[in-house]
Specification:
351 residues; alpha+beta; 5-stranded mixed β-sheet; 13 helices; 40% helix; globular; binds thymidine-5'-triphosphate; binds magnesium ion
């Protein structure tokens, strides 16, 4: 049995801001862009969340919900530094560390001998060290696999931890809403509910064959996780699946030509970011994301090697057709094949 710990910092950017300016303690604060410049909230302190302020919300909405909200512009370098400091502590326990974002990581501590080899004690020690030396709190989930560890880290948030032992898996899953499974969004959840499936317990009891018929290979994936089975390893070397750039414009782009005008600059910054990719990446798709002024969004993509202005112009025209209303955000990017993965190597030989 493996021992996996999932660590997730509590209101991460906001916590770093409070640490560096203790006067903010206990106040509703958020890190995000200026409301007048149509910024969005990156994160909010727990005090601000009580007013309904949430990540990814327009800052203007957040100010309306919480007029006393103190809005702070982000300091990415400070967050990155805190993230490295956390990582440095993790390395005292294992080399198998898989960061998911600046404030989140999986640790496989199956072979760790510290704290008598107890993952529960290791998590507690890591949390204590982070709070003492970095000055922010983190929550942890401890479980035999990644899926359960990730769900568990949310259970006693903030500044808490939750353990799921192999014996406790079934009891934990029986009432767990099925949308806690990665990739089960609103659409899939609604389809599942029509079959009478609300919890992982329901999904696990459902006939696997019928599941696969209805949902394809994703159905098998859901079924396995719902039964508490997740063999995905903690992969320490993080490889990207895509690279992209996007921009929210201070004023809506009212028609297609105005959108097309923005493409050369977006491509230029995308090219700059792609320069940092190593040779083991191969581009397999390019895509364009368009967010309209009613906040609906669409992404169009097609297979390409290297996205040119002509390719993206075509994608932009397609995306525009789907909304035909003013546009607030444009993004362009590429999806990548990672040739260091076995799958990527196989592709070279046509499978
Ligand atoms: P999260 O871990 O999702 O959120 P959080 O750490 O702020 O709060 P929680 O206590 O619920 O874990 O994201 C980590 C950081 O990533 C967050 O502090 C800010 C950033 N972020 C964004 O910039 N935009 C987003 O939409 C989200 C969700 C996060
Ligand atoms: Mg977090």
């Amino acid at each position: 049995v493996r021992k996996i710990i999932h660590i997730d910092a509590d209101c991460f950017y906001a916590a770093v801001e409070v640490r560096d300016n203790p006067k903010l303690k206990g106040l509703p604060i958020a890190v995000g862009g200026n409301a007048e410049r149509r910024g969005v909230i990156a994160t909010a302190s727990y005090e601000a969340r009580k007013f309904g302020v949430r990540s990814a919300m327009a800052s203007a909405t957040a100010m309306r919900r919480c007029p006393e909200l103190i809005l702070i512009p982000g300091r990415m370098s400070a967050y990155r530094e805190a993230s490295w400091a956390m990582h440095a502590i993790f390395t005292d326990y294992t080399d198998l560390i898989e960061p998911l974002s600046l404030d989140e990581a999986f640790l496989d501590v199956s072979d760790c001998t510290r704290c008598k080899g107890s993952a529960t004690l290791i998590a507690r020690e890591i949390r204590r060290r982070i709070s003492k030396t970095i000055g922010i709190t983190v929550s942890a989930g401890i479980a035999p696999n990644k899926f359960l560890a990730k769900v568990a880290s949310d259970w006693n948030k903030p500044d808490g931890q939750f353990v799921i032992t192999p014996d406790g898996i079934d009891a934990f899953l029986v009432n767990l809403p099925v949308n806690k499974i990665w990739g089960v969004g609103k659409v899939t959840a609604t389809r599942l509910e029509k079959l009478g499936i609300k919890t992982c317990g329901d999904a696990g009891q459902y006939d696997l064959f019928q599941f696969v018929q209805q949902f394809g290979s994703f159905g098998e994936h859901i079924h396995k996780l719902a039964c508490g089975i997740d063999d995905r390893p903690v992969v320490s070397q993080w490889r990207r699946k895509s690279i992209s750039v996007e921009n929210t414009y201070p004023e809506d782009l009212s028609d297609l030509p105005r959108c097309l005008d923005k493409l050369p600059k977006l491509i230029e910054s995308l090219d700059r970011r792609m320069e940092s990719l190593d040779q083991d990446y191969q581009i397999n798709h390019s895509f364009l994301k368009m967010k309209f002024n009613d906040f609906s969004q669409t992404t169009v993509e097609r297979q390409h090697c290297n996205p040119t202005l002509e390719d993206l112009t075509m994608l932009c025209e397609q995306a525009w057709q789907r909304g035909q209303i003013p546009v607030r955000l444009l993004g362009v990017g590429v999806r990548l094949n990672d040739l260091t993965e076995n799958g990527g190597q196989m592709d070279l030989f046509g499978k």
